């Protein structure tokens, strides 16, 4: 069985296209549960923005590649500055705590999908920082 560090490295080693594919797949798996968590029709969209901001804000910096990844994932064309503003507004400790609460409310298989989704964002810039590792560890704990 692969160690935690090997799993992280496997994500870092994935191509941009693989990460985009896995992010789409992972989010599709957890979206119905997120809708129920927020108890409204926009629940999945709200959760998605909180989770993405939590991931992108975990290390306190946003790369151009992370911004591009977000745009491609959501099929939108926001500029880098707009993404920076979104992360600045939402990517704080509160969003990371809420993402952790979401993860804890999910069954194990869905929690794994949520962690995978986050890892795609964290690895897209080809590095996972110490702060990002701490965020993933927090999500994985029960």
Which regions have little confidence, pLDDT < 50, spanning 5+ residues? none
Number of helices: 8
Largest sheet: none
The 3D shape can be described as globular
Number of strands: 0
Please give a structural write-up:
This protein has 142 residues and is mainly alpha-helical. The protein is built from eight helices and no strands. α3 packs across α6 and α6 packs parallel to α8. The protein has helices at residues 4-13, 16-38, 43-57, 64-74, 80-90, 93-105, 108-123, 130-140. The mean pLDDT is 90. The longest helix has 23 residues, at 16-38.
Concise summary:
By secondary structure, the protein is mainly alpha-helical. The protein contains eight helices and no strands.
Keywords for this structure?
142 residues; 77% helix; 8 helices
Topology:
Blueprint: H1 4-13, H2 16-38, H3 43-57, H4 64-74, H5 80-90, H6 93-105, H7 108-123, H8 130-140
Helix pairs in contact: 1-7, 2-3, 2-7, 3-5, 3-6, 3-7, 6-7, 6-8, 7-8
């Amino acid at each position: 069985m692969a160690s935690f560090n090997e799993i992280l490295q496997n994500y870092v080693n994935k191509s941009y296209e693989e990460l985009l594919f896995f992010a789409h797949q992972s989010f599709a798996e957890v979206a119905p549960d997120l809708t129920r968590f927020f108890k409204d029709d926009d629940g999945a969209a709200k959760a998605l923005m909180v989770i993405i901001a939590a991931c992108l804000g975990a290390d306190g910096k946003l790369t151009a590649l992370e911004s591009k990844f977000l745009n491609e994932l959501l099929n939108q064309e926001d500029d880098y500055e707009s993404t920076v503003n979104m992360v600045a507004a939402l990517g704080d400790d509160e969003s990371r705590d809420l993402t952790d609460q979401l993860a804890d409310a999910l069954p194990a298989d869905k929690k794994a999908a949520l962690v995978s989704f986050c890892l795609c964002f964290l690895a897209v810039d080809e590095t996972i920082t110490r702060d990002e590792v701490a965020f993933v560890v927090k999500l994985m704990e029960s």
